[in-house]
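A student in our group prepared the protein record below, which I am reviewing. Thanks in advance; the entry in question is below.
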Amino acid sequence: MEQKGMEQNPDDVSESAARAARDVRVVFSRLRRRLREVAGSEGLTPSQVSALTLISKGGAATASALASAEGVRPQSMAATLAVLEQQGLIMRTPDPSDGRRQLVALTDAGRERVEGDQQARREWLARALQDRYTEEERQTVLAALALMERLTQP
């Protein structure tokens, strides 16, 4: 049964749902790229930034655990970590539960880098929302985000 204005495609998804899905993906991808640019992680690749962020959020971990979490081969993670270590952003220490393994953790410089990047992103986004939107538009964004939150629920 079709409702007026809600044409169904073969997958039984309305045109508006399909368009919203596409537009959400595009806008969030662009916003994610813009936030990466703003953070300014000069000299770091997206993989290196991602590894730093993962270590920052999860704490010390083995290289193999990081590779698994990032969905990359252990050799790729090893190369990423080697660059981060050369730049003094991470350090390796023996795993207290298994001396054959090493744990990777952020150095003070790595922590400062991650925190600085996060602060830059927060400040840019708040300023952009302040400068580019009216109060009414910001309230609309907040309402839309509350609706989007439902997508994160199981």
User: Anything to note?
Assistant: Strands lie at 90-95, 98-106. Confidence is low (pLDDT under 50) at residues 1-9. The chain has six helices and two strands.
